[in-house]
Specification:
By secondary structure, the protein is α+β, with helices and mostly antiparallel strands. The chain has six helices and three strands. Strand 2 and strand 3 form a beta hairpin.
């Protein structure tokens, strides 16, 4: 009977379904190598679409598409500067996620 109490206690401590769904979708953003490259560039410095495209050997259109996806996930933000938009990581959490991911992947190498 104690085991049942333990599992109920664990169940009650889990995040709600909507939160789990949101976290799952957040991690899907990191499941695309191109998006991770864009985030890695923006971790180094804020950049315009053209700069990102040139750095990654991609078209402006392809970069813009991925930036829209990343913006919708609140991982990047754009700041209008004249006729162009300069992109940056949305907040320090994004940097930490990238750093923890790299640390984890590089462990034991």
């Amino acid at each position: 009977m104690e085991n049942q109490t333990d599992t109920n206690s664990i169940k009650n401590r889990l995040p709600d379904e909507e939160t789990l769904y949101d976290v799952s979708n957040l991690f899907k953003m990191f499941g695309d190598r191109t998006r991770v490259k864009i985030l890695s560039c923006l971790q180094i410095r804020d950049m315009y679409v053209g700069e990102l495209a040139q750095s990654l050997d991609m078209t402006d259109s392809a970069v813009s598409h991925q930036l829209r996806v990343l913006r919708s996930a609140k991982l990047v933000r754009g700041t209008k500067e004249g006729k162009e938009v300069k992109y940056s990581l949305d907040d320090d959490h994004v940097t930490k996620i990238l750093e923890y991911g790299l640390t984890h992947v590089n462990e034991g190498k």
